[in-house]
Design brief:
By secondary structure, the chain is mostly helical. It has two domains: 7-62, Arc Repressor Mutant, subunit A (Orthogonal Bundle); 75-212, Tetracycline Repressor, domain 2, CATH 1.10.357. It is 70% helix and 0% strand. The protein has helices at residues 16-35, 43-50, 54-60, 64-93, 98-117, 121-126, 133-143, 149-159, 169-190, 198-212. The two termini are 39 Å apart.
Length: 214
């Protein structure tokens, strides 16, 4: 599917009252998705649940897709902040072992994808490139003078060099990262239910370990 540009609001709220109105619209959108499902999501239903006039909604959002985009942006910001703290835990695992760290990375990656996908599957798949959670996390970590995922992973493998098969670490890191990415993206597109299956996560871990270890 070709990438679509993420829908934009008509304008951003400036006053406290207008910010409260937009927040109510976002909350109503989430409530409908969680309690009624995507098929019930319309601008009319959002306005009704939010307790606002439909004209007020259209003052800020041209359609339900723009509301969804705003909701996704807010959720992404929360996930980025949450994930930044997870990196501390993963970094601490590196001394405990290669397998434990890889398992934690897989859990983190799948957890992020599921939280975004499950909100509204069709919308997320259509705008997935614009809703690149790893890219947002990388931006935050680098702004804090920390290495990006692409920079960190080769260093992690070097820390466990003695366990790995002979080969160029940068090449091995690239292949391992891309293999994980490809499996996750294929599962998301073709078998999203697999992402919730512990057996799928175990097979992903086995794939990486069989490639990386002696």
């Amino acid at each position: 599917m070709s990438e679509s540009r993420l829908p934009q609001p008509r304008k951003r709220p400036r006053q406290q009252r207008s910010r409260a109105l937009v927040a109510a619209i976002r909350e109503a959108c989430l409530k409908i998705l969680e309690q009624e499902g995507p098929d019930r999501l319309t601008t009319e239903r959002i306005a009704e649940v939010a307790g606002v006039n439909i004209a007020s909604l259209y003052q800020y959002f041209p359609n339900k897709e723009a509301v969804l985009a705003d909701v996704y942006e807010e959720r992404m910001a929360a996930l980025v902040a949450q994930t930044a703290s997870e990196f501390t835990r993963i970094h601490a695992l590196t001394d405990q072992g290669l397998e434990a760290t890889l398992a934690a990375i897989i859990d983190l990656e799948i957890g992020l994808l599921l939280q975004l996908y499950q909100m509204y599957p069709d919308f997320y798949l259509q705008y997935q490139q614009s809703l690149d959670i790893r890219g947002r996390v990388n931006e935050l970590t680098q702004s804090l003078a920390n290495p990006s995922w692409e920079q960190w992973f080769p260093g992690f493998l070097r820390h466990h060099r003695a366990q790995l098969h002979q080969g160029d670490i940068d090449t091995m890191a690239f292949i391992a990262r891309r293999s994980l990415d490809a499996c996750l993206q294929s599962a998301l597109a073709e078998r999203p239910q697999a992402l919730e299956d512990p057996g799928f996560r175990e097979e992903l871990l086995n794939l990486l370990l069989r490639y990386l270890l002696r």
